[in-house]
Amino acid sequence: MHYWINELWRLAYLVLGFGLLGWLIGYPGWGIALGLAVHMAFTLRHLRKLYVWLEAPVEQSPPAGEGVWGDLFDRLYRYQKASAICRGGCVRSSIGCRSPARRCAKA
Known about the structure:
The chain is mainly alpha-helical. The protein contains three helices and two strands. It has helices spanning 2-24, 28-55, 68-87; strands at 91-93, 96-98. Strand 1 and strand 2 form a beta hairpin. Helix 1 (2-24) packs antiparallel against helix 2 (28-55). The longest helix has 28 residues, at 28-55.
C-alpha cells in the first residue's frame, strides 16, 4: 500500500514543483501541465518496459522499476513462475525442461 502513497507524493511534488516554477515565470498552468507530462512520461516508460518483458521469453527476469512499478513487476514475475510450475510436468528454462520443485495444491 505504501507504494501507492509514494506514487501520489511523487505526482504531487512534480505538479506543485513545476506549478511553482510556472507561477514564478508567469505561467502556472503551463508549469502544472509540464509536471503532469513528466509524470506521464515516467508512467509510459514503465508501461513500455512491462510490454517488452511480457513479450519476451518466460526465462527473462523482470525489468527494474521504481515504486509501484517495481512492485508490479515483482508480483507478475512471481505469479508467472508459480503458474509455470502449476501448469504441468516441466518448467522451461535456458537449460531445457526440468521437473517442478513442488506440485500445486488442488482446490
